[in-house]
Amino acid sequence: MRTSTSSRLLAATALVAALGLTLAACGGGGDDDSKGSGGGGKSGDSLSGQTITYWASNQGTSIDADKKTLAAETAKFTQQTGIKVKVEVIGWADLLNRILAAATSGQGPDVLNIGNTWSASLQATGALMPWDDAAFQTIGGKDRFAPAAIASAGAAGQDPAAVPLYSMAYGLYYNKKMFADAGIANPPTTWDELVTDATKLTKDGKYGLAVEGANGAENIHHVFVLAKQRGANWFDDQGKPTFTGPQQVAAVKQYVDFIAKDKVAAKGDAEYDQNQTITDFATGKAAMMMWQSAAPAIKSHGMTQDQYGVVPVPTLTAGATGDAGVTSMVAGINIAIFKDTSHKEAAEAFVKFMTSTDEQKALNGTYGSIPPVVEAQSDPAFQTPDLKVLASVLQKSAAPLPQVAHESEFENLVGPAVKSLFADAAAGKAVTDDSVKAALTKAQQQMPQ
Amino acid sequence: MTATAPARRVPEAGPDSGKPAAGGRLRPRFIERIRRGGLPYLLLLPAVIAELLIHIVPMFFGILISFKNLTLFYIHHWNSAPWAGFDNYKTAVKIHQPIGQELLHSFWVTLSYTLLSVGASWLLGIAAAILLQDKFRGRGLIRTVFLVPYALPAYAALITWTFMFQQDTGLVNHVLHDQLHITSDKSFWLIGQNSFWSMVIVSVWKSWPFAFLALMAGLQNVPRELYEAAAMDGAGVWQQIRKITLPALRPVNQVIVLVLFLWTFNDFNTPFVMFGQNPPRQADLISIHIYQSSFINWNFGSGSAMSVLLLLFLLVVTAIYLLVTSRGRSESDV
């Protein structure tokens, strides 16, 4: 019995080993084949008849809505050039993982959208085609784009890894009726005014301000601006983290104090991470919020455009300029070409189409964002009161998030640290300079050295 | 295609290979050989291929990556990432350095979570299985209801729990605070210390039907006569459970406790759906901690090293557990 079992085991092991080798051989052959057929053929052919794949980010109310919008737009492109576009709209939860998988395997789309804060990190992977001057010439030159948008497309001193596609900026949204009822004539321009106004507005189960406390990315966007207003950055010139400076500590503390000390935001906001802030604002539960290009979302909750106003986010002192006057990060989406594409020219033609003035008007108009192409900004669609304010913020008082390779770790460590401080505040624990500094120190220690 | 390849190669390896004239004699012999011993392996082939592709090959690459310095700078040409030796492992086990400290913290959270969840699931499972052992009206219905959490899709159930745990509008606070007035203030369940307990509650809710199902099946094999004889000898309910039910269920317990332990220790869905990719520190389970190291910080070398350490830990625990419980079992069998 035993001998028969062991000989079977032996036979099975041998079979597995043989199979492994067979598979390895198969795998190798498959790779060679695919490279052979992918690399050859196309070069030298005319662009017409080629098919490119485009991974789009979810910009509209749903993935299906985006599919319809983009199908209509890409049909125009196919008509003009004969190049077919296979569009895949990918939700935000999956997009970065899909891009990472594509970067690792070399099997990816030809053209893709990226969140502009990922630009430097993805640039460091080497998976995206750098946009040198020659490449920019194929889409009409770098000058067509707003400088702030270009600055958020890759690390300083390097060719951008992508081209700006949609731009957004933060503004302070306020409920006109709630302000009038509380006898407040004008929206706040400084943080002191904001806290004073918000305190007046906080009563009867309603709050002056709503914040998205458990959303790491939102936390990062706000503490970036609050530190910038104090003249501080989160990375030094060498790209080393500087999380624990007194200005950074003060910035985080000011943001968390909206719940902890000022008590102008509801304790429950500490667990918000599904855009409940917009719901609270649009349903009159909170009188103010700081958000980016929120018009379509507010509208979907039934609040009309005349019921709210948008002004730049406050600063420490009225009329501050330079870093002290920064009121928003440069938010937005960039479009990039995958370096391994075998349809480079077709991909460039598609980027040229997507950044053409007409397409910029159409797409940004649909998505409620601001065109990074300056020429398109004058279109009447972008002259609504709120978009005019946000466009002016982008032009005058927005700064790009640190464009360094380790930006994603910054978001992943500092964002949750702020979330955890909000949780402390909501649980009634004291949030002090020391506790903020301890949280930031721990985050910094985990950064790659 | 691959499945038939070895079968075709076998005759070529034989002494008569390559001679077409021998083909006629070869075929019956080949079929005979397959009939004698090869057929089972041939039938196993698809499973072996699937096993290789799904488990063995990725695991091999995972181990390989753990020795590489595979950060975002190399993912596009990951095979050119420099070798890191044991650096990734050293970083992970240096418990006085921040990264090792956080991993150790995450390990303790996971261990507490697993022990509490498995313990409570087993207790509930055995209690329900024993209570439903005797026939009564509606027993089938109750059994079905008890199995519902096991049958529900995990994501849908977890999202529903998350809604129920919300501070402001959740059902849990509505019952505890608004209706029963047990808590003085509406508690937070998804952030802070309570997040650990809400995760344990959800995990127990999700796992205990499995324990219940397996133990109920195990109880079917315990002869009724044993209980009757024990009752005649004057044994009470507790004595019957202790002396008859539990020893009889020992083999079943051995398996379900191990399986539940492994499932719970590796649980990813529960914290990810409840808290997103950045769970509160109190609910930082090791699987999500590793996910963060790999996919959010883009340091796949470090993430893989942590995964290998986790694998080693679970292998050791499993081996010790099986050794101890099997020894106990064979002794009791004697």
TrEMBL record, chain A:
Residues folding into a coiled coil are none
Record keyword Secreted present:
no
What's the name of the protein?
Sugar ABC transporter substrate-binding protein
Q: In its keyword annotation, does this UniProt entry include Cytoplasm?
A: no
Q: Where is the signal peptide?
A: 1-24
Q: Which UniProt keywords apply?
A: Signal
Automatic annotation (TrEMBL), chain B:
Which family is this protein grouped under?
Answer: Belongs to the binding-protein-dependent transport system permease family.
PROSITE patterns in UniProt: ABC_TM1
Q: How does it sit in the membrane?
A: Multi-pass membrane protein
Region annotation (Disordered) maps to 1-24
Instruction: Please identify the protein, giving its name as recorded.
Output: Sugar ABC transporter permease
Entry keyword annotation includes Transmembrane helix: yes
Q: What subcellular locations does the record give?
A: Cell membrane
Q: Which residues form the ABC transmembrane type-1 domain?
A: 107-321
Entry-linked CDD domains: TM_PBP2
Highest taxon of the lineage: Bacteria
Sorted alphabetically, the keyword list is: Cell membrane, Membrane, Transmembrane, Transmembrane helix, Transport
Sequence intervals crossing the membrane: 39-65, 111-132, 144-164, 196-219, 248-265, 304-324
For whether the record's keyword set contains Transmembrane helix, the answer is yes
